[in-house]
Structures are given as structure tokens and as C-alpha cells.
Amino acid sequence: MSAENESSTANSNSEKRTTSVILLDVAGTITSLNFIKETLFPYAEKHLEEQLKANWEDENVKALVKKLSSENEELTIEKELTYKKGYDDGSLKPHVYSDVPEALAIWTKTKRIAVYSRGTVESQKLFLKHTTEGDLSGHISNYFDLSVGDKQDDASYVKIAEQLSITPEELIYINDEIDEAKAAKKAGATAILIKRDGNVEIPEADSAGFTIISSLIELPTGGESGKRKNEEPETAEAPPPKVAKTENEAENKEKAAVDKKEDNKIELAIEAMEVDAVETGKGEDKKVAETVVESAPSVSESKAEKAPAATEPVVADQDVEMAEESKAPEESPPKSDETVKKTAEKTEEKPKEEKPATAASKEEEVVKTEKDVVDKMEVETKIVENKLADEVKTIDDKKKTDEVKKVEKDETKIEVTAEKTDDTKTEETKENNVPIKEKTESSETNAQKETAEKEAVSMETESSEASAKNQNEDAKNKDVTSQVSTNDTGPKQEKNIEEKKEDGKEIEEKKPEIEAGEKPSKKEKLVDGNEKMEVENKKSEETIIKKDAKGEVSTNDTGTNKEETKVEEMDAINEDKLLESSQDEDIASKKEDEIKNSESQNGVCTKEPSVKIDEKKPEAMEVETKTDEKAATSTESTDKTNDVNTVTATVDVSSNVNTKDDEKEATKDVNKKEDDTKTVDAKTETVTKDVNTEDKMKETTEECVNNLEKTKKITETNKENPAGKPEESRTAEVKSSDAIDGIDGEKMETSAKTENVNGEATTSDAMENQSDLANGTDSNSGANSSSADGVENGDDVKNNGGVNNSTTEEEIKVKKLEEKSDSNTVSVEA
Ligand SMILES: CSCCC(=O)C(=O)COP(=O)(O)O
């Protein structure tokens, strides 16, 4: 039997990975004791006699009988023969518990399974081969019978271990008898008690410290090791196994059922038992290390080996703790792996999912921000447009009011001039009613001009509005570009921006044309005024154009305000000039009145000069009026032309802004208007010069009046003393003539030179230089040599002398004045 056991053991050991071996008892463990007692043994007894009788003549039977007579072994052999016959004919069917084949199938994957029974090895083999659950002999690697020793002897377990090539600690013995368990435990093996129905009850005191199971599937992970039990007090203060078993029986069954399919868990339970056995210290440390190494070919196996079995609840409290401890590393890694995987997936998926999500959200945010920006821009542009429209309206209103005021002022001025012209009551002035009429007509035309100007101004305001809008659009474009630079807007906005930029460029290109169209309307007003304002206006225009050329956002308010201020200044200057001219006229009229009064008082001397002066005065007035009229007509003509040009230009500009061909025509018109304005400016320059000469003439007339008064006094004295002091009268006359000649600077210089040649001191109080001339009584030739006029004057003085000479000289002087005034008029007409 021992040899059989060894051979079977050797055959199976090489195939197992682990060194631990589960050693099974038969009766009461894999089969019921009732089957052994009630079936197997009676079957043998019954069939043994028959077998003996049938085979009595057989040599084998004869040898057995002889042997039984001496050792009782033959009976065992006869039993084997009986069992074999029964198993073979089916009359005997060995019983096994239902959990046996399942447990064997599980254990046999990683463990060796051996059988240790009182029946012979052949009987054991026949038994496992013909069980009610089928042939289970294939899971059994080794069979041991009583040949190795009594089951209650611990040495038997040592031998078995030796035969299995393992240590007793590597042996797990499962049986139903406490004495055998104690022997195995004593040998160092792990002894597990199993309680099945019909087994002999184990006293609780004896079973204390042993693991008790009711099914092989409940095989505990740690098992009961002798050492552990030995470490605990034998009195077993620990709870009795039965109590733990009964309390946890239902749960163990359920869990066992659940864990049946998990083969690795059972294997791990066995490995845990091995570990527990190693912890007892009975095993060799090296072997334990080897088992650990062998049982750790892979991570899963090592984990599975340490994993708790489903039968864990059956285990005692300490084992449960170990199982929980062993669970933790097993369950935690998968969890950790899963968590790692999940986290990795999350980390991988999250960025992938979050990135698109964040990208989409960002895009949505960007779109929202873009929409918000566009909305804000639209709102801002609307606000700016509304503001500009309001400002343009206010500017228009101001301009209209200013223009109305201007029209009123012009009307009053025209009335004043008309009244003045009526006051002259001369024939020439009557003849000059035509220009006065023209003035009135021109006033009418001025009124028409004003209306035209209003229209032009309205057009200007429209153009200014357009320029303001253009500037606003430029500002919008700038704002848009600035916002686009900060914010990455979509392509739609870029297109809009580009379109706006193009529109802004076109508008900027149109600006100079529009602004050029504004020039005539401005120069209309400049014609009435002086050149300074024109220059200033040009400068302002140039500055505006430069600003526009630079791309600066020049608000139209400043330009319009400047224009308004300039126009106002121009109007003020014009008004001042008109006032000055009117004052000059008043002064001249006053002087005339004074002369008349003096004439009426002085009699002879005053008549001719007064007449001539009166003749001259109307002429001078005529000159003035002519110059004024001509200036007015020139200005009016230019105004008319400019008005027409402005109207046409503004109409052209306003109507032709949309078409480029019309814009070119408008530019041509504007250029023409600029040329017209230049010619008008030149004319105005000549007119202003003539006006200055007229002022000088006025001064000379004043001096003439003074001299006449003096001549009057001299004539009176001459009358009183005809023979004496002719020089004084002559000097006075010369003074007057010189004063008249003084109009011409060259004549004054020449006369002064000739007079200084004589170098005689004068006693006259009137004018020192002229008194020098007067003192030169012998210097008449000098005076005559000064000029042709001087010759005439000298002749007159010589021939006439006295009162008559003075009158003739005055007439000559008046003629000179007339000639000069005529030359002025001619120059003005030219
Ligand atoms: C399976 S062989 C027959 C079993 C038998 O004879 C026997 O006595 C079993 O007792 P044990 O508890 O030792 O297996």
C-alpha cells in the first residue's frame, strides 16, 4: 500500500505548481459513514462468503484462507474483491457528497489531492472510480492507507509528507475525527474538521481551536494550524468553532455558492492556508520563500493566492481578519487599476472631451463676445450718428440765424447808402441813380444771393454732414480696427471692416472735392471782406485738409465752428469798414458843410473854391461812389458768378457725389470757381488800394480847406494892405498847392528839394517845410522848375498874384484832383 501511495504521489507531484497537498479522509469526509457501515461493509461480508465459496478452489482463495488463519489480512483482500465485483456489476455504488467532485475539480488545478483511509489503496481507488458522482479518481494524486501508520498517530502524517516530498506544514488534512486531526496537527499539518450529517459529534472541548466545515467548498483560507492553536490557550477561550460555524453557516453557503465559479479564490484560500502554515514556524523559511516565489509567477496568481476564499466566514475571527487583510491588497489593486484606468480614461477622455467642450464653449463665448461687440459698435455708431445729426442741426440753425442777421445788416447798409446818395442831390448823383438802382437791384440780388447762400450753406451743411458722416465712418473704422485687433472677430466682421475701410477711403477721396465745393461759398463772403480772412480761411482749409490727409479724426464741429467764427469775423470787419467809410463820408460831408459855412462867411475867396470844391466834392464822392459801386458791382458780379458757381457747384457736388464722372465735372467747376475767386481777389486788391488813395484825397481836401481859410485871411489882409506881404499869400497858396501835390509823394519830394535849395527860413506858422518854400520869393523859378504843374502854378502866381492868383491855383489843384480821381476811376475800371 505504501508503495502504491508513493507511486501515485510521485506521478502527480510533478504536475502541481504548489507544494501544499490536501489530504482527504474517506468515511465521514467524502462519503457517509452510513454508506460504509450499512452498505459497503455488509456488502463485503455478504459477498465475501459467496466469493469464498465460489472461488474456494481457486489457489488465490486457498492462499487467503491460509493467511486469514494467521493474520486476518485475507479478509481485507476478499473485501477488495467483493467491492470490485460490486463496483463492476453495479451492485455497489460508493456514495460521495455532492460537493466532493466540485471541490476536487477546483483544488486539483493548483493542488495535489491525496486520500488517507483505513481501506486499502485498491479499495480507495475502486471507490473513487465508481462513486455516485462519477469517477473522481482522476483528481487524486496519492492514496494512503494504514500501511503508513495509524491515522491517530502523528508519525503517519510525517511519513505521508515525506512520501509527498513536502513538509507536514504543507499538508492539509481534512477529516471528521478529532483524534486524527490532533495527530495531524501534532505532526505539523493543518487539520480541518468537517461535520457532515451522520458523523460522530466532536466534543466542543476537543474541537476547540480547529476549523470546522460542513462542505469541502468551505475550505478555509487559513485553516487551523497546530501552532496557531498551540499559541492560543488550549482552554479555548476563543468562541467554539461550532458556534462560529452555525452562526455563519447560511452566509457561508450563500457565499460558497457564489464563489463556486471563482476557482482562483479557492486556490487563493489554499495558498492562504499555506502562508498561515508558514507563519506557524513549523515550515522551513526557505521553502516558504520558494512557495511564495513559485506561487507568484504572475501578479494575478499572487493576488489570487492571497485572496480570501468564499468560505471565509467559516474561518475564525483571526482568520477573518487575515482574510480581510489579504482582501485589501487584492481588491485594492483591481480597484486601483480600475481607478487608475478610469482616471486615465478620465484624464484622457476629459481633455479630449473637455477640450472640444472647452473649445466649443470658447467659440460660443467668442461668438457671443463678437456679437456683443458688434451690438455695442452698432449702438455706439447710432449714438454718434445721432449726436452728429444734432450737432449739424444746431450748426445749421446757427448759420441760418447768422445769415438772417447778415441779410438784415446788409439791407440796413444798403438803405444807409441809398439815403446818403439821395442827400448829395447832384446831377451826377442823379445820373448815378443808375448804379444806385443797381445797388438796390444788387440789394435784391443780394437777397437772392442770401437765399442762394442759404441754399449753398445748406448744401455745405449737407456736405459737412457727409464729411462728418465720413469722419464718423472713419472713426468707426478705427474703432472697428482697434476692436478687431483686440478681439479675434469672425470673417464676417473682417469683411464688414474691409468694406467700411473701402467706403472710408472713397469718402476720404471725395472729401477734397466736397471741400473744394465749399470754397466758393466761403469766398463769396471773402469778396465782401478783405484778403486776410481769405488767407486765414485758406489756411484753415489747408489745415483741415492736412488733418484729413493725415487721417486724423477731425470732428466737423471744429471746422464748422472755425468757419462760423471766420465768417463772423469777416462780417465784423466788413461792418467796420462800412462804418469807417460811412464815417469818412460823414466827416467829408461835415467838412463840406464847414467849407460852405466858411464860404458863406468869407465871400469872394470862398466862392470859386467852394464851387470848385463843391464840384470836386461830388466828383470825389462820385469817385467814391463809383469805386464803391464798382467794388460793389465787382464784388456783386463776382458774388453773382460765385453764387451761380456755388449753386451749381453745390448742386453738382450734391447730385454727383455718387457718380465719378459728375465728380470730375464738379472738380472742374470748382477749379473754375477758384480761378474766378483769384481774379476777384486781384480786383479787390486794386479796389482797396484805390480806397486808400481816396482816404489820402480826403486828407488833402481837409488841408485845402485849412489853406483856403488861411488864404481868406491873407486876402483880407491884402485888401487891407495891397502893397505889403504878397509872399504870405503866395506861400499860403503854395502850401495849398503843395498840400495837393503832396498827394503825389514824388512831387512833394521834388518841391521840397527845390525849396530846400533856397534854404530860407520861413515865418509861417502853418507848415514849416512849406513855409520854407513860401519864404523863397525869388524862388518862383525853382518852384516852376519842380514840375509842369509847378510851372503853371508859378506862372499863375507870377501873373496873377494876390487874390486872383490864389483862385486860379486852386482851380488848377482841383483839376489835378479831378484828374487823379479820374485816373483812379480808370484804374478801378481797368
Ligand atoms: C474506501 S475504502 C473502504 C473504506 C473503509 O474501509 C474505511 O474503513 C474507511 O474508514 P476511513 O475513515 O479510514 O476512511
From TrEMBL:
Any one GO BP annotation for this protein: L-methionine salvage from methylthioadenosine
Compositional bias of kind Low complexity: 643-658, 774-791
Disordered as annotated region, ranges: 221-375, 387-830
Keyword Ribosomal protein: no
One GO MF term attached to the UniProt entry: acireductone synthase activity
The entry's keywords: Amino-acid biosynthesis, Hydrolase, Methionine biosynthesis
InterPro entries documented for this protein: Enolase-ppase_E1, HAD-like_sf, HAD_sf
Basic and acidic residues biased stretches: 244-268, 279-289, 324-375, 387-442, 491-551, 560-579, 587-597, 609-642, 659-701, 709-719, 725-752, 810-822
Presence of the UniProt keyword Hydrolase in the record: yes
Top-rank taxon: Eukaryota
Biased composition (Polar residues): 460-470, 480-490, 753-773
UniProt-listed Pfam families: Hydrolase (PF00702)
Gene3D superfamilies: 1.10.720.60, HAD superfamily/HAD-like
Segments traversing the membrane: none
PANTHER family, A to Z: ENOLASE-PHOSPHATASE E1
Protein name: Enolase-phosphatase E1
Species whose genome carries this gene: Popillia japonica (Japanese beetle)
